[in-house]
Amino acid sequence: MKENHDPFARSRELFARAQSSIAGGINSGIRKMEQPVPLYFTRGEGPRVWDADGNEYIDFQIGQGALLYGHAPKGMADAIAAQARLGTHWAAQCELEIEVAERLQAMIPSAELIRFNNSATEVVCAAFRLARAHTGRPLILKFEGHYHGWSDEGLVGFGTPPERWGDDEQPEPFHPSRGVIPEVPQQFVVARWNDPEHLQRRVAQFPGKIAAIVFEPVLCNTGCMEPAEGMLAAIREICDREGIVMIADETITGFRFGAGGAQGYYGFVPDLTVLGKALGGGTPFAALAGRRAFFTGILEGSVIHAGTLNANPLCLAAAKWCLDFVCERGARHPGEMIELGRRLMEGLRQLGKEHGIPLRLQGPGLVFHATLLKDGAEDGPVRDYRDYVRRHDAARWTHLRRCLLEEGVRAIERGLWFLSMAHNDADIDEALGRAKPAFERHAEQWKANGRGSPSTA
Ligand SMILES: Cc1ncc(COP(=O)(O)O)c(C=O)c1O
Prior knowledge:
Aspartate Aminotransferase, domain 2; 13 helices; alpha/beta; globular; 4-stranded mixed beta sheet; binds pyridoxal-5'-phosphate; 14% strand; 14 strands; 7-stranded mixed beta sheet; 457 residues
């Protein structure tokens, strides 16, 4: 991008205009994080996306992971268009919903029954309701830093500031939003991720009271932390022993980690599974899948689950295309994407080394996180939320991300990178070529100022 020219002028103009019609100028809180301005996009194709200023990016934000098949895949666009001509919404049944549910059953062994919604936030609420009805117990155990949507229930224990951590053994059920029903956080037990012994002790503090344990199988909403050795087996064992419902939130990992999601990849069998993002390939679609016994409340009619737009035919048409695409890839998925992701990680690691940037890349390639270590922070795997907050220099990442953006590489505002099936070797080479001047500029500016001074105003 040229010197002395604001490459984001049109986005700035639109963002300023949006202030008088859209509350805060954006429609999802996290989008406000984007520096120097939340960007406006006009089109995408495969792994690339173009903003309103005409800048082209190799995209690793990729719809916050939803665009597993890249931007605007032709087959999906055709499927949605064909359905749109037949009808956009019936608020009733159609054969497509059975076809999609049957595909899920075939791909995910624990998916004996399915219900559809439009967002994973809603699905999480349904899962909690079913679990409470199933067990007759009030509490949900969740892990610190895991994100389960933006509802009162989904956000407990997310983004807890250090002054509210409580001691390591008893994390506080902090809620990051005002306006929440005051009793909601009290219905949660928060535990630290990746410490099976701590989890055993935490559960033992609430005998006969915990209805469900919910978790991101790979913590992707705070850093990127795969389950530690024995962690998933410990959750399954505790749930079986204590009669607790095991809820895997596979909103991010579903289909990304293979046709069977993280449960296929790591080999575990949850009771209920939350699916979203890649299920609809960028359409507003999500599903609850699980073993028949845990749907009893819905089957008997004692648990209410509803939604005007549930099983919307446009989303179903997209989802059918997406699931067939995953299945057609067969054994090539997720191996090919892992390889690409690892190459990208290695290239970025090398660039970090060359420029003296304390960059730690962590994750299984399909998704990974760029942690920038704070001055004096030790290297080594980031294990849990507290470890992440203690060691990750968020301000420094924001500066590096912006330098990358200015060179045409788009990563996520909080440090995450997603691969897609649309990226190939040439895209990775090109992204690394673009990243080189971005790393150089970041290193120079950070050193010069002791902090980030953006290269354009
Ligand atoms: C693990 C996880 N669960 C739930 C959600 C909520 O999904 P949605 O934004 O579709 O409501 C998200 C969204 O990022 C997520 O990452």
